[in-house]
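User: Sequence in, structure out. Go.
Assistant: Echoing your sequence, followed by the structure tokens.
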Amino acid sequence: MPPPDRPRRLTHLSRPAVIALGGYALTRLIGLAVLAIAAAATGKDGLHRLKGRWDSVWYVRVAEHGYGYEVTLPNGDVHPDLAFFPLLPALERGLSAVLPIDAATAGLAVSWTAGLAAAVGIYKCGAHVAGERTGILLAVLWGVYPTAFVQSMAYTETLFTALAAWSLYAVLRGRWILAGALCAVAGLTRPTAVALIAALGITALVTLVRDRRLPLRTVAGVLLAPLGWLAYIAYVGVREQSPTAYFDVQAAWGNSIDGGVALARFIAGLPWPAALGLCAALALLGWLVALCVRQKQPLPLLVYTIGVVFVSLVGAAYFGSRPRLMMPAFGLLLPPAVALARLRTRTALPVLAGLALASAVYGAFTLLGSGPP
């Protein structure tokens, strides 16, 4: 990992960064436009599905009433709201207190703003690794990810990805204290923060082995990194009077870590054509991870990407949610971004347009149907 050549503000927006931001925003506008058209054609409320259903309802409830709510299902399973990390509802509560909007609308405002911040952070990481053109394409590809419609919802994926991307970029620039602070905040957003914590810790460990010394700022960043995640785990433990309370809560939701057993059983229970297709999709995922390794991505980005994929696959959660859970692993899109960067603009643009339209149609179909898993 090369040291920074000279101090620069991490928030500096160059012209390519603005292009990346605009390209990403355009993909999300296409998604919203297709959703609006489909909702009008079917007589359904598209906006309500972005901010008022599924997990969004849980975040709003926490924002408005704090923790302490739970639902008992007909089969006896209990789903407590402690499964949801506190940063998004805290921001919803804060925004709704100072602006004339409700908590649900505040959640959309946070998610959309975070999506833009994530796009710029992703561009910065891509440009650092493979040049500005690749960085632009990486940000746009993240906006046309198959489940990118979730980026337009009051969910935590965009907020977490923004914090993770900027934390990784800070590491790549040698800003360890900033990286650790951003990682700590990410730890209040999603349990997936363990992948980001691991990325910083392993990078620091390799640096120590290689250089036989560790700068004080690196030590400080590594010590800061897990504080947010640990703080929430400790909060749930104290509240429920059990050191394993948070993991018990996740198990109650069916999200315990089983090493991939649930995934294997799910595949085994499918009709063979569906099982074959799913295995092909998993093989494609493995191929992308292998390409990331062959590409020799910077260690923190590589560890983070593999970590997010690993965490998404080894849990017992419903399989349909896993593509969404893997969405923050934007490093998976770096190999295709590099490949697209080799094409002429007049060739790359139709490809991106087609992907944006396909992602938008799939998003509208899912949101107006069963909804995001």
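User: And one key feature?
Assistant: The longest strand covers residues 70-72.
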